[in-house]
Amino acid sequence: MFGRFKLKEHGTDVKTELSAGFTTFLTMMYIVPVNGFILSDAGLDMGAVVTATAIITVLATLFSGLWSNTPIAMSVGMGLNAYFTYGLVLGMKLPWETALGIVFLSGVIFVILSFTKFRVWLMTSIPVDLRRAISAGIGAFIAFIGLKQMGIIVNNDATLVGLGDLGSPVILLGIFGLFTALVFYTYKLKGAFILSIALTSIVGWVLGLGDLPQAVVGMPASIEPILFKLDIMSALSLSLLPVVITFLITDMFDTLGTLTGVGTRANLFQGQDENDKALEKTLEADAIATVGGSLLGVSTTTSFIESASGVEEGGRTGLTAVFTAMFFVATLFMLPLFKSIPPNAIYPILVVVGVLMFTELGNINFKNNDLAITASSFLIVILMPLTFSITTGFAAGFVVYTTLKIMKREFEDINLGLITITLISLLAFVVN
Fold this sequence. Notes:
By secondary structure, this protein is mainly α. The protein has helices at about 15-30, 30-40, 45-70, 80-90, 95-115, 120-125, 130-150, 170-185, 190-205, 230-235, 240-265, 275-295, 305-310, 320-330, 335-340, 345-360, 370-385, 390-405, 415-430, and strands spanning about 75, 155, 160-165, 300-305. It contains 19 helices and 4 strands. The protein has a two-stranded antiparallel ribbon with strand order 1-4.
């Protein structure tokens, strides 16, 4: 029954894979309610989003496990879901149907690239320090959103932003949730984020800052309000091309970064022929899941770094992912509980995830006094939160990097892939 997973060859067994799958489930279960809150801010029906998130998590993770035989779980990615809502829909005033069309197009391109060598060429064309800056910039972006939604950062006509009323019980609940999440994660508790959400919710209910759940479980909400509602034709616009490329490249970076980190711990994707095939199949699963997710009505699906928790428990094969998918079926029936969670028990998680992504900034090599790297990294990180746009920060960074390299005549650091991305980035400023 489990022969296809080659458990003995990977030094594992069914019991270990089951435990690893449950661990991965606990550490990433938070994405279901969190994504429900984020996409509902864009006008999507929360119940439908929760159901769709659970479904795509089950299907994508199951497909990944069976197709690639790796312990990689997949779900709707943090960062791009925030950009979907707060950058595209609320920021650029795009209909959420158009935003789903953008996700679909980026996924289709990713699928095509996953079956060609062009993907490798594109990825190796981009300096590794710019990749790290993009990750750090997205971290700053979603942390800023989390603080804003919590009420800690508010609008100020004189200074653009200011500090909110820290004496407000609702904001204090959010601060409690933030520190709870940080402490739980620091102590490496299994399911740190979901435990933080649970504890903060209980405190909120006790203090009357949220309605008690009328039930813990119930039938899944229909996904009809968002199913197949994407508008592909409106996304086929020259002005939106930089946004499509942003979703594409960010998803690729996120996926490859996750697979590199998890692969190192699980001795996967280390350059051997078999492992290279596993990497290709995992990328293919990730890309196909993004297309499928957009059809169901959710933003970009990607590989989750939380898969590393299952690997730490001994998970080594796709059976871990299969078990993770099976556990996620339970979230389909937890909508009544999810809907009763106070918002300020959810938004602190955005801040913590942002902090974790921001740590990539420390891996950028600033010691070489390369102004192109320093200036482009700075603009990427600072402009993403200040303009509420991952695309703007991304584009500014590439334009500045390439321009400075040309002016300094450091042509050895420039290649066709970088020039192509830079020209597309210019569209973000030229075409409106």
